[in-house]
Amino acid sequence: MINPYIIKFPDEFENNIELMEVLKNGTAKEKEHALLNIALGGHSPKAVLDLFLCYIIDPELEVVAYMCIDKFLENYRQYPLDRVLPVLINGLNHPKEIIKHYCQNALDNLVIPGKLKEETLSFESFQISFEYDSLSSYLHSDSAEQIIIALLYLYHRPHANEQLFKVLNEQLTKNIPAVTCVVGAIIDTKLANIIELINGVGELSLASYTIARASGIKSKAVWVYDRFDSIRELAREHMKVIVAEEQEVR
After folding, report:
1. Could you tell me if 40 and 70 are in contact, meaning their C-beta atoms sit under 8 angstroms apart?
2. 134, 133, 136: which is closest to 170 by C-alpha?
3. 187 and 168 in contact (C-beta within 8 Å)?
4. Can you tell me whether residue 143 is helix, strand or coil?
5. 3-class DSSP state for residue 242?
6. Full DSSP string of the chain
7. Can you give the pLDDT at residue 64?
């Protein structure tokens, strides 16, 4: 039986007789398997998104469609952002928690994709027209879509962290769920990069301190590690708040 919720398959898939047989007449599980394979790569990004967007109106497969969009954004490095961003923003208000979860993951993937990490995103990956002159008006907008585009522009292009953090703090005050999600992903990524940097330089710092002491030179490493201890204590305090709030939700 032909799925009544599919209006038109993208041409790229219409020409694949075997795939069409599965998508039109297969079981729900067979369709899910086929869609997940498509989400992993090898097809035109626009055609893939068009296919998944057809399925989000299908009650039987809408959860699978959102999951596939999430997987798509993990694995693809070029795609038309304007086709998928409004769907993710609206999806955060979906009554099904699992769909909210997939939409949040997908928004996170706009900042740093979960797969193929050796292939990073650039703002050009999103295939949208945007000029620096529009940055201020987008950031001062109440449109989640415009704000997110502006934040991705700032993050994926060369920027000063101080400027970016100021903008992120300003956007948090608007309390727009999708914007808050992207802001959080940017902040978490920045923190992760800092932690990796600390881990990478830690042994070198200790070696420097040891050699300096042996040479009779007063090293500044003690002050640095005192500061590091205070940062760790701050992290512990933050974790107490996070854990307490998670327990309240449960």
Report:
1. no
2. 136
3. yes
4. coil
5. helix
6. ---TT-----HHHHT-HHHHHHHHHS-HHHHHHHHHHHHTSSS-HHHHHHHHHHHTT-TTTHHHHHHHHHHHHHH-S---HHHHHHHHHHHTT-SSHHHHHHHHHHHHHTTS-SS-TTS---GGGG-----GGGHHHHHT-S-HHHHHHHHHHHHHS---HHHHHHHHHHHHTT--HHHHHHHHHHHHHHHHHHHHHHHHHHHHHHHHHHHHHHTT---SHHHHHHHHHHHHHHHHHHHHHHHHHHHHH-
7. 96
**pLDDT on residue 196:** 81
- Spans of the chain below 70 pLDDT: 1-7, 115-119, 219-229, 243-250
Q: Select from 25, 37, 92, 95 the least CA-distant residue to 64.
A: 37
